[in-house]
Amino acid sequence: MEAIATLRPLVEFVTAALDPDRELAERFRKGDRDAFDLLVRRHQKGVWHVVRRYLRADADTADVTQQVFVRAFRSFATFRGASTVRSWLYRIAINCALSWIRDHKREQPAEIADDALFEPAAAPGRISDGEDNAALRAAIAQLPPKQKMVLELRVFDDLSFKEVAELADCSENTAKVNFHYAVKRLRDILKGDHVARD
After folding, report:
1. Where do the domains of the chain lie?
2. Quick one: CA dihedral 142, 147, 153, 159, positive or negative?
3. If you classify domain 123-198 with CATH, what class do you get?
4. Element (H, E) at 74
5. CA angle, 148 as apex, 22 and 54 as ends, to 5°?
6. In the chain, what are the helix, strand and coil shares in percent, each to the nearest 5?
């Protein structure tokens, strides 16, 4: 227990060095509201994409995205810096989206939105650009929730496995295992779908 306490400052130092938003976070904590505006501009699109994968309507996604930043603004004092600002915002986004779904369960259609997974993304490792979007979307929808979340965060948001693990509330190794099984299962589903269409 004592060893963990002595390592915590080192972990925070390394995280701070790797987080391009750390300076803005510190400026905001010191009362610079413009710093928060810059954080919003920097991460608004990414947060919107995370929320959009959970919600069907653009209007609902916009509302929940706004809620994410309001919640972040109000709770910035609780941000300890153990993760990057982006990871922290994405965790808030996932929680807000899941809360919205829970509160609007009867209104939310069961299927995934047509364009939710195929917005332009910086992710270098697209599963396959040649795959039919509808088949890929249907295959991703068949994944178990944890595998689906890990796959989407890793591929579509281009997060490291460390960041994925933080957001999925699991170890980094567990995130890697879930990703491996998600990709394997997607290949099997898509292969079966391809055989069925032939």
Report:
1. 1-110, 123-198
2. negative
3. mainly alpha
4. helix 58-75
5. 70
6. 70, 0, 30
- Rounded Cα–Cα distance for residues 192 and 40 (Å): 42
User: Which two tokens mark 1?
Assistant: 């227990």
Contacts of 69 (CB under 8 A, 6+ apart): 40, 44, 47, 89
Calculate what percentage of the chain has a pLDDT beyond 70: 74
Question: Given this structure, which CATH class describes domain 1-110?
Answer: mainly alpha
> What would you report as the CA-atom Rg of the chain, rounded to the nearest whole angstrom?
18
- The residue-averaged pLDDT of 55-70 equals 93
Closest C-alpha among 117, 127, 113 to residue 190? 127
Instruction: Looking at 80-144, list the stretches that DSSP marks H as alpha helix, in order from N- to C-terminal side.
Output: 85-103, 133-141
Return d(Cα 168, Cα 149) in angstroms, integer: 7
Please give the model's pTM, rounded to 2 decimal places: 0.63
Tens-place pLDDT, residues 127-170 = 444 446 777 778 888 888 888 888 888 888 878 888 888 888 88
